[in-house]
Model the fold of this input.
Amino acid sequence: MTLDPSSRPEPPPPAALSPAPSANWDPEQTNALVNGDGPRPLTPERRLLCMIVRQLTEELLRATGLESDQDPGRRATGHVRQVAMYVCHVAYSMPMGEVAEAFGRDRSTVGHACRMVEDRRDDRAYDTFVAIVERMASAVHLLAGRRI
Done:
């Protein structure tokens, strides 16, 4: 039995194939779309919560002496911000994009901050410090009634 070449089904045109994954694929955004959440706007209350965590981090860092008062420059300020970003992301389960918006930074900066803090948590004193900031941030969140 011979098949007529004109009776064979044609392969789908290239446009009908699904597109290749984007190089800028964002798993958080995909999860939000799948769950129906979508990216939520940053509320003034959540921004305030992030600024409270930043202030708590700065005061605790100064009180513990992990950062010297002699060097209140950019390095110390950046370190405080990194810890605060990490705590907001971890303790409050805030997406990195939302944390970035609260701190006026890029999402990649928050990712970098989280990696830096995680890497430094091998140091026992530093880990204890971050754990204290996390507990205090959780207490602030409880006081706010978790409405934020």
Remarks:
- The radius of gyration is 23 Å.
- Residues 14-25 have pLDDT under 50 and may be disordered.
- The helical segments are 27-35, 44-64, 74-91, 96-103, 107-120, 124-143.
